[in-house]
Design brief:
Radius of gyration: 38 Å
Helix content: 55-70%
Number of helices: 3
Order of helices and strands: HHH
Strand content: under 5%
Length: about 90
Amino acid sequence: MAIGAKDKIDALLVKKYQGLKVDNPVIQSSMVDPNKMLEAMNDYAMVHMNALNLQQQLKSTCIKAISLNIQYRKSRNLKPARPAQAVK
């Protein structure tokens, strides 16, 4: 795969714009400060991590509360069954 102009029009465009320097001040002035973006990402991550920790603590607290309040009851009679009488 060759790099460069593929036809005469491309060659003329490259020749016309090869010495032109592009400086777009609008992009630089509207760009968000990278440090500010990293701080926002860090804040979001910390809030998410705290929410997960809180959810785990709530889950373990609920499990402990439920396990302390369980009352075991007999759900059925566990007497051994009588042997079946032989049929004549």
